[in-house]
Here is the input.
Amino acid sequence: MSKAQQALLSVSEVTVRFGGLTAIDSVSFDVHPGELLGLIGPNGAGKTTMLRAITGVVRATHGEVRLEGEKLNGLPIHKRIRKGLSLSQQLVKPFREISVLDNVALAAGMDRTRSPMKALLRVAQDEEAAIGRAMLERVGIGAYADQMPGIQPLGVLKRLEMARALALKPKLLLLDEPLAGLNSKEARALADTIADINHQGVTIILIEHNLGEVMRICQRLVVLDNGRKIASGEPRAVMDDPAVRSAYLGGDADASEDTQRPALAVAGGHHA
Ligand SMILES: Nc1ncnc2c1ncn2[C@@H]1O[C@H](COP(=O)(O)OP(=O)(O)OP(=O)(O)O)[C@@H](O)[C@H]1O
Ligand SMILES: [Mg+2]
Here is the structure.
């Protein structure tokens, strides 16, 4: 509390083990208020596990996660949501039987009722519908409010997922590969929306394999590889770090010396 600028989120020496596998190995980093932080690294690096440890989906074996100085370890997911965390998942799974708008209104209701069932009964309430409409506008799909989610393309569903996450009024929004599966034009547009949401005051952790967009919109990067933090800092400097190049290029940084930086941008998602 006495620090000049308190971190919004502070991850210290977090380790997550699944049986004999160490998915996260003593990783520490801070997220500052207002920041758009990119969390990157090759497949299996531990990025999703880190988000899950922050939101309480998995338990940290060691270490601490603090939000505004307050320890989150041991708190269940819904309490962490109430304290200001919101996770937008890699897989988009809206309720298909209710409209796009009601999906967001439901999330707005959950913020207050804590129970999905109670929230469902409150869906019709004007206030939640108003929040829902505002969030849909904010992510650029206001026109889809009254349609059913089942018939929407992936780009719309991803924005719906983001609107649902925003309806929880998060202090910290956690996005896991929101651009995966989109073509480059759609990815660029959604990245612009993410940057807008950040500029409107929402602090964001963005996990992405689309390094081109990450470089374009993130203010700072943290890089994981094999469960360890291997670099952090200003995006350009991080991308020039031999350890990062080596991690992305499969352990032979020297061989890539004449490769331009964009070659690192394994744009468009997973490399096998
Ligand atoms: N619930 C689980 N049980 C056992 N092992 C797990 C579990 N979740 C993740 N892992 C393992 O932990 C490691 C890190 O996985 P994680 O999903 O966090 O990586 P990631 O960086 O998100 O990868 P990707 O870019 O492919 O999404 C992997 O070896 C993965 O197989
Ligand atoms: Mg992942």
User: Anything to note?
Assistant: Residues 252-272 have pLDDT under 50 and may be disordered. The domain at 85-169 is CATH 3.40.50.300 (Rossmann fold).
